[in-house]
Design a protein that fits this description.
Blueprint lengths: L12 H8 L6 E4 L2 E4 L5 H18 L5 E4 L3 E4 L2 E3 L3 E4 L9 E2 L2 E7 L5 H5 L1 H6 L7 E5 L5 E6 L7 E6 L5 E4 L5 E4 H4 L28
Parallel strand pairs: 4-7, 8-9
Antiparallel strand pairs: 1-2, 3-6, 4-5, 6-8, 9-10, 10-11, 12-13
Length: 210
């Protein structure tokens, strides 16, 4: 998610939905603010497709539907575009969006990492239907899984690297997403890439005592 769209007047969710019909780009509407959706990188797009295809194959002709990127998710007065969703309950009154997903998958981008792990996690947890939220890194082989079992408190687990075999998913049918499926055709390392530390000019530091 990028920066808020400048110059827009305050609007309600219904006004946002009417406004978005007249623009080509996708936008999310969160806490009354409109955000433009930025395009994903090639690794982001491949991971999203890999996950959606694996879940779609698992869904078969069953009652669950798998959506990739273009389907809206409405939570109260907020509107999102998750990278992947699995919906197994009847849709709401508006066929332009989903209301009760069982699984939501977010593929991290540099601009969305904090939002996916904080604000969206908090919003998604408010959904009674949601049984798992997967946050997938495109920089290295890492999946952060948030889930709940019955009425238990939310739980969290991280799987990463060469030793990670699969990630459980509760629907379309209870099964798994293997790391080989998630990262198919994606050259993601096992560990996070090293970040260079910016070196300060030596002149900015006062000399020590003689």
């Amino acid at each position: 998610m990028s920066e808020p769209v400048p110059g827009l007047p305050p609007m309600t969710c219904d006004e946002f939905l009417a406004w978005e019909k007249g623009v080509e780009e996708r936008h999310e509407f969160i806490d009354g603010v409109v955000y433009a959706m930025s395009g994903g990188s090639s690794p982001h797009n491949r991971i999203t497709l890999n996950v959606a295809a694996s879940l779609w194959n698992a869904a078969g002709d069953g009652p669950c539907h798998v959506y990739q990127e273009g389907e809206k998710l409405r939570i109260g007065d907020d509107v999102f575009y998750p990278d992947v969703m699995v919906v197994c309950e009847p849709d709401g009154e508006d066929d332009r969006m989903a209301y009760a997903p069982c699984v939501v998958v977010g593929v991290l981008s540099p601009s969305s990492t904090r939002d996916d792990r904080e604000r969206k996690l908090r919003k998604y947890r408010a959904l009674p239907s949601l049984r798992a939220y997967l946050i997938v890194s495109q920089e290295y082989r890492h999946v952060e899984r948030h889930w709940r079992e019955s009425a238990d408190a939310p739980r969290r687990r991280e799987d990463r690297g060469a030793d990670a075999g699969h990630v459980p998913v509760p629907c379309p049918v209870p099964g798994v997403l293997s790391f080989s499926q998630i990262y198919r055709s994606v050259a993601a390392p096992d560990r996070p890439p090293l970040r260079r530390v910016r070196e300060e000019p030596a002149g900015e530091f006062a000399p020590g005592p003689a």
